[in-house]
Amino acid sequence: MTSPIKKVCLVGANGTLGSVLLAALVQANCFDVSILQRSTSSSTSSASPSIPRIIVSPDLAVDELTTALAGQDAVIAAFPLGQGDQHLRLVEASFHAGVKRFIPADFGSCDAADALPQEYLPLYRRKTLVRERCEAFAARPGSAFTWTALVCGHFFDHGLRHGLLHFDFATRTAQILDGGHARASASTLRRIAEATVRVLQRPEQTSNRRLYVQSFNPTQLEILAALEKAMGEKWTVRQVDSKAYLEDARKRLESDDEEAVLVAVEDIVFVLGALDADWTKRDGFAMELLGLEDERLEDVVEEVVAAYRAEAQR
Protein backbone atom coordinates (compact mmCIF):
# COMPACT_ATOMS: atom_id res chain seq x y z
CA MET A 1 0.00 0.00 0.00
CA THR A 2 1.27 3.47 -0.89
CA SER A 3 2.20 5.52 2.18
CA PRO A 4 0.42 8.84 2.82
CA ILE A 5 1.84 12.04 1.42
CA LYS A 6 2.59 14.63 4.07
CA LYS A 7 5.47 16.88 3.02
CA VAL A 8 4.75 18.74 -0.24
CA CYS A 9 7.11 21.09 -2.06
CA LEU A 10 5.67 23.48 -4.64
CA VAL A 11 7.86 24.95 -7.38
CA GLY A 12 6.42 28.07 -9.00
CA ALA A 13 4.26 29.25 -6.11
CA ASN A 14 3.90 32.81 -7.36
CA GLY A 15 2.57 32.06 -10.83
CA THR A 16 -0.98 32.24 -12.14
CA LEU A 17 -1.67 28.63 -11.22
CA GLY A 18 0.99 28.23 -8.54
CA SER A 19 -0.48 30.86 -6.26
CA VAL A 20 -3.88 29.12 -6.36
CA LEU A 21 -2.26 25.72 -5.82
CA LEU A 22 -0.42 27.05 -2.79
CA ALA A 23 -3.60 28.40 -1.22
CA ALA A 24 -5.40 25.08 -1.78
CA LEU A 25 -2.55 23.02 -0.32
CA VAL A 26 -2.49 25.19 2.80
CA GLN A 27 -6.28 25.20 3.16
CA ALA A 28 -6.39 21.40 2.90
CA ASN A 29 -4.73 21.40 6.33
CA CYS A 30 -3.21 17.96 5.85
CA PHE A 31 0.19 18.77 4.32
CA ASP A 32 3.43 20.31 5.48
CA VAL A 33 3.90 22.72 2.58
CA SER A 34 7.15 24.34 1.47
CA ILE A 35 8.16 26.39 -1.55
CA LEU A 36 11.23 25.84 -3.69
CA GLN A 37 12.54 29.26 -4.67
CA ARG A 38 15.51 30.44 -6.69
CA SER A 39 18.03 32.60 -4.84
CA THR A 40 17.55 35.33 -7.44
CA SER A 41 13.82 35.59 -6.74
CA SER A 42 12.61 38.45 -4.57
CA SER A 43 8.96 37.43 -4.60
CA THR A 44 7.01 36.31 -1.58
CA SER A 45 3.70 34.54 -1.57
CA SER A 46 0.71 36.66 -0.68
CA ALA A 47 -1.16 33.49 0.31
CA SER A 48 1.11 32.82 3.29
CA PRO A 49 4.47 34.56 3.60
CA SER A 50 5.30 32.36 6.60
CA ILE A 51 5.50 29.17 4.51
CA PRO A 52 9.03 27.69 4.60
CA ARG A 53 11.18 28.39 1.58
CA ILE A 54 13.86 26.13 0.20
CA ILE A 55 16.35 28.40 -1.53
CA VAL A 56 18.39 27.04 -4.45
CA SER A 57 20.62 28.45 -7.18
CA PRO A 58 18.81 29.74 -10.28
CA ASP A 59 20.15 27.04 -12.61
CA LEU A 60 18.44 24.26 -10.62
CA ALA A 61 21.40 21.89 -10.69
CA VAL A 62 20.57 18.24 -10.00
CA ASP A 63 22.97 17.76 -7.08
CA GLU A 64 21.79 20.86 -5.26
CA LEU A 65 18.13 20.06 -5.93
CA THR A 66 18.62 16.50 -4.67
CA THR A 67 19.91 17.80 -1.36
CA ALA A 68 17.21 20.47 -1.16
CA LEU A 69 14.36 18.02 -1.78
CA ALA A 70 15.50 15.33 0.64
CA GLY A 71 12.65 14.37 2.94
CA GLN A 72 9.88 15.66 0.67
CA ASP A 73 7.04 13.27 -0.13
CA ALA A 74 5.76 15.16 -3.17
CA VAL A 75 6.98 17.81 -5.60
CA ILE A 76 4.66 19.85 -7.81
CA ALA A 77 6.06 21.68 -10.84
CA ALA A 78 3.93 24.77 -11.52
CA PHE A 79 6.34 26.97 -13.45
CA PRO A 80 6.68 27.48 -17.23
CA LEU A 81 8.37 24.79 -19.29
CA GLY A 82 10.82 27.12 -21.03
CA GLN A 83 13.31 24.84 -22.73
CA GLY A 84 12.28 22.01 -20.42
CA ASP A 85 15.79 21.28 -19.07
CA GLN A 86 15.00 22.58 -15.59
CA HIS A 87 11.93 20.37 -15.40
CA LEU A 88 13.95 17.33 -16.44
CA ARG A 89 16.52 18.13 -13.75
CA LEU A 90 13.74 18.56 -11.19
CA VAL A 91 12.38 15.10 -12.02
CA GLU A 92 15.83 13.53 -11.73
CA ALA A 93 16.57 15.28 -8.45
CA SER A 94 13.18 14.26 -7.04
CA PHE A 95 13.96 10.64 -7.85
CA HIS A 96 17.39 10.75 -6.22
CA ALA A 97 16.00 12.60 -3.19
CA GLY A 98 13.47 9.83 -2.53
CA VAL A 99 10.39 11.86 -3.45
CA LYS A 100 7.32 9.60 -3.63
CA ARG A 101 5.14 11.62 -6.02
CA PHE A 102 5.99 14.08 -8.77
CA ILE A 103 3.32 16.16 -10.50
CA PRO A 104 4.74 17.65 -13.73
CA ALA A 105 3.57 20.89 -15.34
CA ASP A 106 1.14 19.15 -17.71
CA PHE A 107 -2.13 20.83 -16.66
CA GLY A 108 -3.50 22.77 -19.73
CA SER A 109 -4.62 23.34 -22.43
CA CYS A 110 -4.52 19.99 -24.25
CA ASP A 111 -2.89 16.59 -23.85
CA ALA A 112 0.75 17.08 -24.79
CA ALA A 113 1.00 13.54 -26.13
CA ASP A 114 -1.70 13.97 -28.77
CA ALA A 115 -0.68 14.17 -32.43
CA LEU A 116 -1.63 17.79 -33.16
CA PRO A 117 0.13 19.32 -30.13
CA GLN A 118 3.23 17.27 -30.95
CA GLU A 119 3.12 18.52 -34.53
CA TYR A 120 2.64 22.20 -33.88
CA LEU A 121 4.60 23.23 -30.79
CA PRO A 122 7.93 22.27 -29.18
CA LEU A 123 6.23 23.12 -25.86
CA TYR A 124 4.23 19.92 -26.01
CA ARG A 125 7.18 17.83 -27.10
CA ARG A 126 9.02 19.13 -24.03
CA LYS A 127 6.07 18.21 -21.82
CA THR A 128 6.16 14.70 -23.25
CA LEU A 129 9.90 14.40 -22.54
CA VAL A 130 9.27 15.31 -18.90
CA ARG A 131 6.46 12.78 -18.64
CA GLU A 132 8.65 10.10 -20.23
CA ARG A 133 11.42 10.89 -17.75
CA CYS A 134 8.91 10.41 -14.92
CA GLU A 135 7.85 7.06 -16.38
CA ALA A 136 11.46 5.92 -16.70
CA PHE A 137 12.34 6.68 -13.08
CA ALA A 138 9.13 5.10 -11.82
CA ALA A 139 9.93 1.92 -13.77
CA ARG A 140 13.36 1.41 -12.22
CA PRO A 141 13.61 -1.73 -10.06
CA GLY A 142 12.83 -0.96 -6.44
CA SER A 143 11.89 2.64 -7.21
CA ALA A 144 9.59 4.43 -4.73
CA PHE A 145 9.17 7.30 -7.20
CA THR A 146 5.71 7.77 -8.72
CA TRP A 147 4.09 10.46 -10.83
CA THR A 148 0.68 11.82 -11.76
CA ALA A 149 0.02 13.97 -14.83
CA LEU A 150 -3.07 16.15 -14.41
CA VAL A 151 -4.52 17.34 -17.71
CA CYS A 152 -7.20 19.99 -17.25
CA GLY A 153 -7.86 21.80 -20.54
CA HIS A 154 -7.89 25.57 -20.85
CA PHE A 155 -7.51 27.58 -17.64
CA PHE A 156 -11.07 28.78 -18.10
CA ASP A 157 -11.54 31.72 -15.73
CA HIS A 158 -8.05 33.10 -16.35
CA GLY A 159 -8.21 32.50 -20.10
CA LEU A 160 -11.69 33.98 -20.48
CA ARG A 161 -10.84 37.14 -18.56
CA HIS A 162 -7.54 37.76 -20.34
CA GLY A 163 -8.66 37.06 -23.90
CA LEU A 164 -6.78 33.79 -24.29
CA LEU A 165 -10.03 32.03 -25.24
CA HIS A 166 -10.65 34.72 -27.88
CA PHE A 167 -13.68 36.28 -26.25
CA ASP A 168 -12.81 39.99 -26.27
CA PHE A 169 -14.55 41.86 -23.45
CA ALA A 170 -13.51 45.27 -24.70
CA THR A 171 -15.08 44.87 -28.14
CA ARG A 172 -17.69 42.22 -27.22
CA THR A 173 -16.33 40.07 -30.04
CA ALA A 174 -15.98 36.28 -30.11
CA GLN A 175 -13.87 34.22 -32.49
CA ILE A 176 -15.78 30.99 -33.08
CA LEU A 177 -13.99 27.99 -34.57
CA ASP A 178 -15.67 25.80 -37.18
CA GLY A 179 -19.17 26.79 -36.14
CA GLY A 180 -18.54 26.53 -32.41
CA HIS A 181 -20.17 23.14 -31.81
CA ALA A 182 -17.14 21.14 -30.59
CA ARG A 183 -17.09 20.31 -26.89
CA ALA A 184 -13.90 20.90 -24.95
CA SER A 185 -13.12 20.31 -21.30
CA ALA A 186 -11.88 23.35 -19.40
CA SER A 187 -11.03 23.99 -15.75
CA THR A 188 -11.04 26.95 -13.43
CA LEU A 189 -7.85 27.55 -11.51
CA ARG A 190 -9.60 26.47 -8.30
CA ARG A 191 -10.67 23.18 -9.92
CA ILE A 192 -7.07 22.41 -10.92
CA ALA A 193 -5.91 23.16 -7.40
CA GLU A 194 -8.70 21.07 -5.92
CA ALA A 195 -7.84 18.15 -8.21
CA THR A 196 -4.16 18.40 -7.28
CA VAL A 197 -5.01 18.18 -3.59
CA ARG A 198 -7.25 15.16 -4.24
CA VAL A 199 -4.43 13.42 -6.14
CA LEU A 200 -2.10 13.83 -3.18
CA GLN A 201 -4.79 12.61 -0.81
CA ARG A 202 -5.28 9.47 -2.94
CA PRO A 203 -1.69 8.41 -3.66
CA GLU A 204 -2.43 4.75 -4.36
CA GLN A 205 -5.34 5.30 -6.76
CA THR A 206 -3.53 8.04 -8.69
CA SER A 207 -0.06 6.51 -8.93
CA ASN A 208 1.74 6.55 -12.30
CA ARG A 209 -1.31 7.73 -14.23
CA ARG A 210 -2.40 10.40 -16.64
CA LEU A 211 -5.64 11.84 -15.25
CA TYR A 212 -8.10 14.20 -16.91
CA VAL A 213 -10.27 16.67 -15.00
CA GLN A 214 -12.60 19.53 -15.87
CA SER A 215 -14.91 22.16 -14.48
CA PHE A 216 -17.27 21.63 -17.43
CA ASN A 217 -17.29 20.59 -21.06
CA PRO A 218 -19.00 23.36 -23.07
CA THR A 219 -19.07 24.34 -26.70
CA GLN A 220 -17.89 27.79 -27.73
CA LEU A 221 -21.49 28.69 -28.51
CA GLU A 222 -22.53 27.77 -24.97
CA ILE A 223 -19.78 29.98 -23.56
CA LEU A 224 -20.94 32.80 -25.82
CA ALA A 225 -24.55 32.39 -24.68
CA ALA A 226 -23.47 32.50 -21.03
CA LEU A 227 -21.45 35.65 -21.67
CA GLU A 228 -24.32 37.39 -23.45
CA LYS A 229 -26.68 36.49 -20.61
CA ALA A 230 -24.26 37.70 -17.93
CA MET A 231 -23.55 40.97 -19.73
CA GLY A 232 -27.08 41.56 -20.98
CA GLU A 233 -26.05 42.27 -24.56
CA LYS A 234 -25.31 40.51 -27.84
CA TRP A 235 -21.74 39.95 -28.96
CA THR A 236 -20.28 40.13 -32.44
CA VAL A 237 -19.31 36.72 -33.79
CA ARG A 238 -16.42 36.12 -36.18
CA GLN A 239 -16.42 32.65 -37.68
CA VAL A 240 -12.96 31.15 -38.13
CA ASP A 241 -11.77 28.11 -40.06
CA SER A 242 -9.47 26.27 -37.65
CA LYS A 243 -7.20 24.68 -40.28
CA ALA A 244 -6.47 27.99 -42.00
CA TYR A 245 -6.01 29.67 -38.63
CA LEU A 246 -3.51 27.04 -37.48
CA GLU A 247 -1.52 27.29 -40.69
CA ASP A 248 -1.36 31.07 -40.39
CA ALA A 249 -0.19 30.76 -36.79
CA ARG A 250 2.43 28.20 -37.81
CA LYS A 251 3.87 30.69 -40.31
CA ARG A 252 3.96 33.38 -37.64
CA LEU A 253 6.11 31.09 -35.48
CA GLU A 254 8.94 31.77 -37.93
CA SER A 255 8.90 35.51 -37.27
CA ASP A 256 11.96 37.31 -35.91
CA ASP A 257 9.62 39.29 -33.67
CA GLU A 258 9.49 37.56 -30.26
CA GLU A 259 6.13 39.12 -29.44
CA ALA A 260 4.66 37.85 -32.71
CA VAL A 261 5.94 34.35 -31.96
CA LEU A 262 4.41 34.47 -28.49
CA VAL A 263 1.04 35.46 -29.93
CA ALA A 264 1.29 32.68 -32.50
CA VAL A 265 1.95 30.13 -29.75
CA GLU A 266 -1.04 31.41 -27.77
CA ASP A 267 -3.22 31.19 -30.89
CA ILE A 268 -2.22 27.58 -31.53
CA VAL A 269 -2.83 26.66 -27.90
CA PHE A 270 -6.26 28.32 -28.12
CA VAL A 271 -7.29 26.22 -31.12
CA LEU A 272 -5.96 22.91 -29.80
CA GLY A 273 -7.60 23.45 -26.43
CA ALA A 274 -10.92 24.28 -28.08
CA LEU A 275 -11.05 21.42 -30.58
CA ASP A 276 -8.98 18.55 -29.15
CA ALA A 277 -9.79 18.47 -25.45
CA ASP A 278 -12.96 16.52 -24.70
CA TRP A 279 -11.75 14.63 -21.65
CA THR A 280 -15.08 12.89 -21.07
CA LYS A 281 -14.12 10.53 -23.91
CA ARG A 282 -10.67 9.69 -22.57
CA ASP A 283 -9.45 6.77 -20.52
CA GLY A 284 -8.30 8.37 -17.29
CA PHE A 285 -11.24 10.78 -17.00
CA ALA A 286 -10.92 11.11 -13.24
CA MET A 287 -13.83 13.16 -11.95
CA GLU A 288 -15.40 10.23 -10.11
CA LEU A 289 -12.05 8.89 -8.92
CA LEU A 290 -11.20 12.26 -7.35
CA GLY A 291 -14.70 12.87 -6.01
CA LEU A 292 -15.26 15.94 -8.18
CA GLU A 293 -18.40 17.27 -9.83
CA ASP A 294 -18.77 19.75 -12.68
CA GLU A 295 -19.06 23.41 -11.87
CA ARG A 296 -21.88 25.42 -13.44
CA LEU A 297 -20.70 27.27 -16.54
CA GLU A 298 -23.10 30.19 -16.05
CA ASP A 299 -21.92 30.74 -12.46
CA VAL A 300 -18.26 30.86 -13.45
CA VAL A 301 -18.95 33.19 -16.37
CA GLU A 302 -20.88 35.51 -14.05
CA GLU A 303 -17.89 35.57 -11.68
CA VAL A 304 -15.56 36.50 -14.53
CA VAL A 305 -17.91 39.23 -15.77
CA ALA A 306 -18.27 40.63 -12.24
CA ALA A 307 -14.48 40.78 -11.90
CA TYR A 308 -14.21 42.49 -15.28
CA ARG A 309 -16.77 45.11 -14.31
CA ALA A 310 -15.16 45.74 -10.93
CA GLU A 311 -11.79 46.26 -12.60
CA ALA A 312 -13.30 48.59 -15.19
CA GLN A 313 -14.72 50.80 -12.43
CA ARG A 314 -11.41 51.34 -10.69
From TrEMBL:
InterPro entries xrefs: NAD(P)-bd_dom_sf, NmrA-like, NmrA/Isoflavone_reductase-like, PCBER-like
This protein's record includes keyword Repeat: no
A Pfam family assignment: NmrA
Name by which UniProt lists this protein: Predicted protein
Ranges for domain NmrA-like: 6-245
Keyword Transport included in the entry's annotation: no
Gene Ontology terms, MF aspect: oxidoreductase activity
Keywords: NADP, Oxidoreductase
